[in-house]
Specification:
Elements: E1 8-14, H1 21-29, E2 36-42, H2 49-57, E3 63-67, H3 73-83, E4 87-90, H4 101-112, H5 129-139, E5 149-153, E6 156-160
Parallel strand pairs: 1-2, 1-4, 2-3
Antiparallel strand pairs: 5-6
């Protein structure tokens, strides 16, 4: 992927996720790598998910919202692929990503001329949600790291080497 000419498309299917979708979107908005678009595909939500997404989108021109009748996550992802203008990354609407995730993934793709890259993830139980949110927002204010970066979320240690600087 050539970061000067290509953007990243973050494709996020949403369905009845009003409690968590804002945090997911915010984690993408706060990326250090800024050449991306966010494609939110509402899959027929019956709660306030669409309204939350629309409110956020009015403040960020990188966000596109698509709506469709409930067809399932695969159908929503396919709609996102059709609308994407860049390389693709899928997120679930309850995911929170590290602020340097896109930067690191794009760098790895370019350095190794790779076609695909990935990350390890961990599901968090609801009682840990507030702790994860707190850690995520504190990450933004960490001093510059000069050694291997390790962060702990939901009992899983995530190490990035080279360090995230």
């Amino acid at each position: 992927m050539d970061t000067k000419n290509n953007s990243v498309s973050i494709i996020i299917p949403v369905y009845n996720r009003q409690e968590v979708v804002e945090e997911c979107i915010r984690s993408v908005q706060l990326q250090s790598y800024s050449d991306f678009e966010i494609i939110l595909i509402d899959d027929g939500s019956t709660d306030n998910t669409v309204e939350i997404c629309q409110q956020i989108a009015t403040k960020d021109k990188r966000i596109k919202i698509l709506t469709s009748p409930h067809g399932g996550v695969s159908s929503a992802r396919n709609a996102g692929l059709d609308a994407a203008t860049g390389e693709y990354i899928f997120l679930d609407s309850d995911d929170i990503i590290h602020p340097k995730l896109l930067e690191v993934l794009v760098k790895e793709l370019e350095e190794h001329h790779a076609s695909i890259t990935g990350t390890k993830s961990r599901n968090c139980m609801q009682q840990y949600w507030l702790k994860v949110k707190d850690v995520f927002y504190r990450i933004q204010h960490l001093p510059k790291l000069h050694t291997t970066s390790t962060m702990m979320l939901c009992g899983v240690s995530f190490t990035v080497n080279p360090p995230l600087t």
